[in-house]
Each structure stands twice: as C-alpha cells, then as structure tokens.
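Forwarding the complex inputs:
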Amino acid sequence: MSILFISDVDSFDNWDAVFRSKDPRAQLVECEDVDDPASIEYALAWNPPDGLLARLPRLKAIFSLGAGVDHILRDHTLPKGVPIVRAVDTNLAMRMAEYVVLHCLILSRQQRRLDAQQVKRLWVSELPVFSSDVRVGIMGLGHLGRYVAERLRDIGFQVAGWSTGHKEIPEVASFAGEGELASFLQRTDILVSLLPHTPKTHGFIGTSILRQLSRDGVLGGPAFISVGRGTVHVEDDIVEALDDGFLSAAVLDVFEREPLPEGSPLWRHPRVTVTPHCAAVTDPRSIVSSVLANIARLERGDSLENVVNVERGY
Amino acid sequence: MSILFISDVDSFDNWDAVFRSKDPRAQLVECEDVDDPASIEYALAWNPPDGLLARLPRLKAIFSLGAGVDHILRDHTLPKGVPIVRAVDTNLAMRMAEYVVLHCLILSRQQRRLDAQQVKRLWVSELPVFSSDVRVGIMGLGHLGRYVAERLRDIGFQVAGWSTGHKEIPEVASFAGEGELASFLQRTDILVSLLPHTPKTHGFIGTSILRQLSRDGVLGGPAFISVGRGTVHVEDDIVEALDDGFLSAAVLDVFEREPLPEGSPLWRHPRVTVTPHCAAVTDPRSIVSSVLANIARLERGDSLENVVNVERGY
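Prediction (whole assembly, two chains):
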C-alpha cells in the first residue's frame, strides 16, 4: 500500500528505511513523487499544509507522526470521515518520563544551586530536599501523562493528576474537571503541563492558574514544567511570576512560537531552562510498528485503534 | 536507655528531637555530658575519635549514623564483641537512587550540552539518546545498590551489577567476582561506584578499571559516577582519563579528601560535576525508627539486624 509522508521536520529517508525493514509492501512516498493522488491510501503526517489531505480521494486514514494531533486538526479542509490516528507509543512515553523525572529531580535536588557552588569551589553541606516531600501535579493524564505519573511515583515523588475525568492510577491522586482544579493546584509544588492543544486549552496556563500553586512547599516557591504544547501556556505570565518571585523556576520544552525567537526573555532568564522541543521525540522504529499493525487491522476488517475524537480535539 | 551521640557533622539537637518524639525513654547524650561512662549502653556514631568507644565498659551495640561503617572500623581499639550495626534505611536508598537516576539522565539526555546551547540562544533539534540504549553498571549491589539498580531499570536503562556474589534482581544482569569483572566493564557506558571502603576496595577504581569501560556506547565515551566512598577511586586517574578523551564525563559526590581541597583540578574541570557528599544524607526520622526497633529486639532477647561482618568490612 502507498503511504504519503508529510513532515516539515522529519527525514523521509530515515522513516522510509524503517518502513522497508519492517514490511517490504509498505511504500512510503513524498508529495513531489505523487503522480496520481488516488493511489494514496494512508498519510503519515506532521504539520501538513492546509488542503493537502483533502486532495487525496481514496485516503483511508491519517496517522500522526508525533504526540498530539493539533498540527493536523488546524486544517479546516480535512476530508470528512477519514479517521485520524494518534501516535500512541510506549517509546514516546518513556522519553517524556525521562525528561520530566530528570527536571523534577534537578529541581528537588537543587542541582542548579550545586552547579553554581561548584563554579565558586564552595563545599556546602546542606540536607537535600527529599523527593518524597515534593508534590508534583500533572495536567493531562492520557497515555503519556499516566506513564510519566507512574515513573515519578516510582522515584518517590507525591504525584497527583488533573484531567477531564477521574483516572485510577495506584498511589497517584486523581483530580477532575473545573470543580477540582483549585484543590489540585493548591497541593502542587511542581506543575507539569502535558495538556494537548485544543480550543479549550489555548492559553489556559497563565497568571490565574500559576498563582494558585502552593507557596508552602519545600522548593522555595512552585515550579512549572511545560512539555505538552507551548500554545497552552502564556509566556509573558510565566516570566512575570518568575520575576516577582512567585515561581521559583520554569522548565520549558515547548513554546508559543517554535523555534523560540532569539529575542525571548526566556533564553537568558536565570531561573528558566529552555530545551528545543526535544522531550519526547518520535522513534520511527516504534511508531512504524504501531502504524503497520493498525493498517493490518483495517485491511482485515477490524476497527482502528487510537482514533482521535475530533470534537474533543485529542 | 542512654545512647551516646558522636558526630563531627550532624546536629545533636536535630537527632535528639527525633528520638524524643519517637520514644521518650530513649535518652540521647553528648560526650561532654557523660559523667559515668558505664551508664552508656548504646552509641550512635559518625566518625568517632579513636579510643572513645573503648572507654564505654557496658556498651551493647554501636549504630552507624550513615551509610558505610569504614568511619567506625578504622578505630583499631574498638571494644571486642560489641556488634556494629549498619544504617539500613529505605530513605537512604531512595536518596541515593534519586541522585544516581538524576545524573544518569543528565548524561543520557545531554542536559549539559542543552544548557550550553541555551546560553548561546541556540535551538538545535537533535534526536536525544534514549535511556534504553544506555548501559549502566553498578559496582556494589548491597541494600543501596539493589534499590538504585531497580529505579534505573524502571526508567528504562539497561542495568547490570557487579558484586562479590551473584544477585537476582529482575531485569538486572548480575556479574560476580574477579572472573566476571572484565565482561561487566566491557558492557558498561556509565559506571556507578557504590562500593564500601574496605582494605580490598581502597584505590580500586583507577586507570586499569576505567580503561576497560565500553567505547562503543551512545554517549561518546564512558562516564563515571562515584557515590560510595571517595577512597575507592583514584582522582588523578579519573582526570587523566577525562583529559585524554577516554572518559566523557565524571560525577563525583565523594572524594579521597573531604571537603574536596580548593586546589583540586576536579572543581573546574568542564566535564566533571562535583557535589559535596550530599547524594544520600541520613534522614533522622527514618534511622531513629530502625535504631529503636533494633534496640527493642536486643532488649527482648532477639538478635540484632544488619550487624556488620567486621572481617569483610561491611
């Protein structure tokens, strides 16, 4: 079958090689090599140009190349009735957990302070903060959020999650909906955003959310880690909360505009860590297996797994 | 019962408060307040001065205040037949795991490179190294080593351990004795030393051990993390292996001399992280409970738990 590959960031050759190694019948093609749009049955897409997918008359499914589908749903001409499939991938979840555990530990173990002391050759014995005294709160408890919550819990953090409905995860407190948002924020020292970008979450994490975080924690002020989508947070509000001493630190992997503009104050803020949207990068080896398994389900008449609810936006 | 508190680093008041809160009958005393040495039944010690413990005629047990007992065993006048008890403490193991997981993730996720890029406002998209491609090897698989190995495994690292005898830990490869040392080192990208200080391990991790580490890994050269005892590694050999490009990084929490002398080249080495022996600091809340439980065992005629084998040194 012919699979159209559309991406403004990923390498065609890389993905093509993985497809070839897994299933010789899967034929990955680039846009410029398509002679007959009706030959394309599947699309594997990251940030497809508006209108492109609508021009494929026999398209059976659209697979997202990475976490989130906002980069597909913003095209308002998407062909009706063609299912959109999320990239659900344990590898992606492992990468995200590595990143969030790493940065929660840098914060709780005060590695930035220790680094500064090393520069000054200062040997200061201080009792470190214990992760078991630090309350991490994760916004968004889907496939990724659940996995991240479990790994933070394994290391010893006090973990809670907030999502639209309650989730049962052993030793992870569950908060749901608008009604429980305030209690969730008030028990949180490190807020982790793993929210998808939808019309409802656009600009959601700004002053009013951030200022409800706990001031009683062991970190000298709450911290914020943004790894879902940059359009969910408000960068001006984050900088303001850092500058007036409310927030103790921010770790941002996603931004309102990417790449982060050179003039952004985030780059040089002493209490901000900036990383270039690298927290959870799709591993072709893992995604290709799940795309091929899903195509096989469809071809034998079963229903696709991980289909996006377009109304909900994820 | 009277418990003598001996420490050159810990605060008496802090420990005294915890003892009072847990058992009002437990009376913690400082050396200068001891009128009658025969009134002391137990000692809780960190780095006790030579000969001090020998002057307590009715001593029933010596408890170590922190991980390791080398700081007690180096006193050659220790009273014969008085058991020495290790601090076995899940809290201590949790702290150690936090530290080792943190630094293995800083290495695998190349956070130091990302930090340097941030300073230059550089947005560079590069596929991060996956922890599942990084092989961590732990020397010393006692109570602490086992716990650290399990947490590294949970995050996704490929973990192996080396110890005097084989250990069974799910999904952690076990290597034992001199016969399997070379194979252990050859499969290791990040070497973690959790060895106790004994006559056998003194200066053990030097050029000949370090140069057997894997050069084929994904980190651009092997790395070394030292968290057991600084007397186990050879600092000149570490610096040499870093300077000639064999080692890619070193993370040291323990040193041949502590505090680390100001003149040490380790402080300012660009690929060395120095922390002030803070990886696993004893939490009085947790140690006091286990000391009191052990004293209760002895008082009711049961045998003590976690008694040190003095011959073996741990």
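The CA atoms of residues 52 and 239 of chain A lie 38 Å apart.
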